[in-house]
Write a structure and sequence with these properties.
It is a single chain. The protein is an all-alpha fold and 51 residues long. The chain is 49% helix and 0% strand. It contains three helices and no strands. It has helices at 14-21, 24-34, 45-50. It is elongated.
Length: 51
């Protein structure tokens, strides 16, 4: 069993690996559709997810 270097995820924390797999464009589209950032100025949805 060798290491999987094809996705450049080796040595990264699990959460960071999961976030890298999320399509940010799709996430942004869903945020706009649901208007979840409306009236919220401290952290936008993407920043809140990754922090």
């Amino acid at each position: 069993m060798g290491k999987d270097n094809t996705k450049n995820l080796v040595g990264q924390p699990i959460f960071k690996q999961i976030v890298k797999m999320l399509p940010k464009e799709k996430f942004d589209l869903l945020v706009r559709q649901q208007k979840s950032d409306k009236g919220y100025c401290a952290f936008m949805s993407w920043k809140q997810l990754i922090r």
